[in-house]
Amino acid sequence: MYKFITSKILTLHSRNTSATGIGLFRLFYGLVTLQEIIFLAYFNHLIFDPIPYLDVEFPMIPLFLYLWMVVACLIVIGYRYRFAVICNYLFWIVFVNFTPMQRDFDGGFDALMISAGFFLLFMPGDRAFSIDNLRYKLSTPFIHYRSFIPRTVSDLDYYLPVAICLGFVYFDSAIHKLFAEHWRHGLGSWLPLTQPYYVSAIDTSYLLNNELLQKTIGYAVIIFQFTFIFLFANSRFRIIYLLIGLGLHVGIILFLNVYPYGMGMLIFYILLIPRQWLETVGNRVKAKSSALVVFYDQQCPLCNRAVLSLNHFDIFRCIDFKSAQEHAAHYPALASFSQDTLLTDLYALDKNNRIYYGLDTYIRIFIKMRYLAPLGLILSLPVIYQCASKQYRTIADSRIRLPCSAECPVPSKLQDDTFYHRIFEGIAVRKPKAFLRKFAKILTALLLLQLNSSIHYGIIYRLHIDTRQNPVIAAISQASNSLIQISHTFFGITPHALYLHDHFAGYDHILAITYIDPLGIERWLPFVNEQGRLLAPNWGRVQSMWANIAVTPTIDNQRLHKFIMKVTAFWGIKTGLILDNTRFHIKLKKISSPVYWVHDQLHQNFESEWQTIGTVKWAKNIISFDLPEDINSL
Fold it and tell me: Transmembrane stretches, by residue range (predicted)?
């Protein structure tokens, strides 16, 4: 195994390829992180307050969420990459382990985001679609943008995160699935989609009512997850696994209300997209010919930096930048302008031979770039145009030019301070054999951590093996648990026992909350509706809180009371209710979670009748419950 890992590392690390996929991976990871931070900010009081709005234990949480939001934005745009990914990694660890997020509001994908964040520390995510890549170009402003050689990465950067973050997760999850009866019957994907608490607003009953289709999907998922880690890198199967994985996780996003998990998994499939596909798409969206030719002074440092910056953001390649000194004489439309005149401003020539200069050139550049057209139109507005022209003239007339006889300086490149450059392009080049040995040992350690988790919870726990009888085995089990805690906290390696029989077995009742408005009319709290569905935005980790912790096959009254208190306080205050004057009703209805296929099970669960089983009241920030002692027996 060790020799195989060493050989594979050497092969992948020696092959260079485009950094486009890595840049997209970083960008979409930042967007998924950003949407989750916005979600946390919206549900700040529900998640972090002991009593929402009434007892605020963590008043600094919003500040840290906004700081984290800034960090996520830096990751999206690829600015100060090393600083941003380190901060993001620490934020995930701190929020997951030192707030109620993990205990009460497990998002189901926190471990995945920590794992991806850990790999981003050592990935060259700043080499494409990033501001840092622009900074790299600006460090040598007198080199024309066409002369830059695209920065490359090794194939290892593509395959390693997929193998560990997807391959390990899938294989571990497949082991657990073998112990679930409904998965063995081929209904692993069918059963969650028949449960009101788990479905989105899209009605999928026309798919669920096809037994053969559902069983085909269920068994295909198990085969897919078991074989992914072994075959995804094979060129003959790569596209198949890419398409199946995309379909699987797009389905989770659309049809289940745990969309963050689906989006988190989809990020990694960017790394599986063949680079040729990305290049083809890139060539398709690029303009077939330049819509505007811009002439600039190549002896002006400011002009060179402006050209490099504008070209960096010209993603459709609609603008062609040329040196006024070398190329202006070849365009008859500019024959009436002396070279001294052309060097005073940026001049532009469109396909109709219309000439623009000064601020008008920038306005035309933005418009021709397509996606920045609104900015160009805003600059064209009266008053804004006059103010911008004045500012432009001040900058243009005060710029410094190099003497025509002087050679353009070529400063040293911007220092690359990422961990990737230091380790994979520093140590690996200077000491290749030592690097190879150490890196292989690190990967072997990660593999052993995953095996420890899979064997401990996927086999020993599932087979109900009692490890307490033998002192030696008990000590090994305790050490294994400690390792799982470490691997879960820092690397996101954790058991992936999702939607198994121990969750759905006995799940035959769900709860909802209504209230009596001032007119005496009973209304549904904007949380669970009449069908039993959790309404948006109560999805993701809020859904997990209610459907996986508060309401379970065996309801624990203490936990249920805690979360009823949180939900009534949060949504009651958020919807403008006066808590002390509002009576809440707790409703229950029977549902079914069969391990065998049943026609139209989703609608049967939707149409089941509700019954009121108790009331909840608030008085001076204290909640009182009038609920049955044993809800499970109802």
Answer: 21-43, 63-95, 107-125, 158-175, 216-233, 239-272
